Amino acid sequence: MLSADKYFNNKVRQSINFDDSTNDCDLVPKFEKIKLANSLSKANKCLDAIKIFESLDQSSFNDIESEAFGWAIYRYISNEKNIKINTFKYFLYKYLKLKNNRPSILHSVILNACIKFENNNPGSIDFVKFLELWNVNFFQNDDYIAKEFKSNDGKIIQYPSLVSRALRIAIDNFIKKEYKNYNISWLVKFCSHAFNIMSYDQWFGRDFAQLSHKIGDTKKSIEIYKNLHDKISKTSYYWSEFGDFVKQADIDLAISMYSKALMQKNEDIYVIKIRLKLAELLIQKGLYENSKYELERYKNTKNKNLDSNFYKLYDLVKNAQSTKSNYEFYKSTQDRLSNFLYSDIKVVECLFYNKYLDNNTKKEYYCFTNFSDKDFKINKKQLKIVKETDLLSCFEFKFINDKPVISEIKKSGKSIGDFKVESPFKIIIGSLKLSYKIDGKIVQYRNINYTSDLNPAFGFLGKDFYIQGKDLMNFSIDKESNIKVIYRYNPKNQKNKIYFIKKLS
Predict the structure, then answer these.
(1) Is 194 helix (H, G, I), strand (E, B) or coil?
(2) DSSP 3-state assignment of 215?
(3) Burial 337-372, CB ≥16 within 10 A → b, else e
(4) CA distances to 146, 150, 158 from 153, in Å
(5) Rounded to whole angstroms, what are the CA distances from 192 to 81, 198, 228, 351, 492?
(6) What phi and psi values does residue 264 have, to the nearest 5 degrees?
(7) Mean pLDDT across the stretch 11-22?
(8) Which residue in 497, 500, 461, 499 sits closest to 481, CA to CA?
(9) CA separation (Å) from 417 to 96, 137, 354, 481?
């Protein structure tokens, strides 16, 4: 088991030479010295406070005394400019030997100070082992929460949580360094726990996937990246990294992912490494013309300081015919990708029941439901397969994290009569009575000219069930009759939302 004595070498553990300015208080009782040191610490005379604490037997400190010494250490290492690496490590060693309560605010801010120091002095702390000593079980609940603040231009900026920042540095250290015979299971286990809490944090998620890949758990990497799909799947780096995870096991799938990356809107300079990775796999599949295209785009974009692998690859395809574009090839690979991403997701059939224009955003939305647990809207511009004339038609959907995958929407052979209506949706059947608004007056259906082109202002089913005129118009109800209504009660506005109305014979 790792200990502070094992982590910090002898040079770090040696006491810093303090002057003898505190010797004149040797006869002062211990509690008075600690009281004085605590006052000096709070007055930002941290080194003077530390001198007093250092003159005492710290092994006899109780938790309150340890806490006081810990705060003096924190204030010193966080405020002292140009602090030397060994000095910083010495005070970390002194802190970790204390017996203060953990988790605590002090314990968390000590870690925060270490993160800042490591960022300013990369590699100065073996952060993986330090975090093990600090003990990830001592994070506070608030340490998982990202902080938000407004920038000068009014934009909301999210600052990563303490847990995220600490774990990402530890993961980066582990991936870049060689840790022979080191048991990393504690970090992997905690990252899994943290990701369940911080699934919103895509940057931590990406790093956790890289850690999983590093230790050979590609299955976990793929699971994480599937979870991140709805957050970052419109980026090239997502598909590039995803392709890296799967290429050992499935070249065709990796090709489809690299192709997806190149189908995103990016300047060439940002995707040249992806072109090189794709070209290598295309050669393995014997697709020399397509590979040559990628290599020439790579060369023309980078121009100089080409990767040594480029020359090896190009030598294999230089005699192949040239092609003007690989875009159609990219598209031809996407069925393989869709099958991988969505084949195990069940189909949910939903009815296109309404469309409306948002008066604030001026965007038009189409509304869908399965009369059970799904009721959602989609911006019309996103929907190529759904037309206005499809109102009251059914479509197949697949959902990831309860969001519909737009690319997977298909027409369904189901009709509205095939749906089973489940709670919170309800059905009501009865006789409809219509009312009209004429010259500012409410007129009953029986008192108007039946040949009139007027649309009903509202209607009642029975005595109490109110139906708006626009709902009646949506379902072409302009005469009194027996009807069937599918609706859902909204407790917020205490109104019924109408999903379907049908005339009964």
Answers:
(1) helix
(2) coil
(3) beebbbeeeeebbbbbbbbeeeeeeeeebbbbbbbe
(4) 20, 8, 14
(5) 36, 10, 14, 38, 37
(6) -75, 160
(7) 60
(8) 461
(9) 68, 54, 17, 19
Q: What phi and psi values does residue 156 have, to the nearest 5 degrees? A: -85, 120
List, for residues 349-358, the tens digit of each pLDDT value: 999 998 999 9
**Which residues have a Cβ under 8 Å from the Cβ of 297 and sit 6 or more positions away?**
268, 272, 275
Task: Please give the single-letter amino acid code of residue 314.
Answer: Y
197: left (phi over 0), alpha (psi -120 to 50) or beta: alpha
CA gap 213, 248 in Å, rounded: 11
Residue found by looking up tokens 């990830």 in the block: 136
Average pLDDT value for the chain: 92
Q: List beta partners, residue 482.
A: 431, 504
Q: How confident is the model at residue 477 (pLDDT cuts 50, 70, 90)?
A: very high
Phi-psi region of 282 (alpha: psi -120 to 50; beta: other; left: phi over 0): alpha
Q: Compute φ and ψ for 245, nearest 5 degrees.
A: -70, -35
The model's confidence at residue 209, banded by pLDDT at 50, 70 and 90, is: very high
pLDDT reading at 112 higher than 70: yes
Average pLDDT over every residue of 418-444: 93
Name the β-bridge partners of 387. none
Confidence of residue 449 (pLDDT cuts 50, 70, 90): confident
Residue 411 CB partners (closer than 8 Å, separation 6+): 385, 390, 393, 394, 395, 396
Is the whole-model pTM more than 0.70? yes
Distant-in-sequence contacts of 176-181, Cβ < 8 A, 24+ apart: 177/128, 179/128
Question: Which residues 6+ apart lie within 8 Å of 147 measured at CB?
Answer: 158, 159, 161
Residue 461 has pLDDT above 70, yes or no: yes
Q: Give the three-state DSSP class for 504.
A: strand
* Least confident residue range of 51-60, 147-156, 413-422: 147-156
Q: Which residues of 140-167 are buried (b: 16+ CB within 10 A; e: fewer)?
A: eeebeebeeeeeeeeeeeeebbbbbbbb
**How far apart are the C-alpha atoms of 94 and 58, rounded to whole Å?**
9
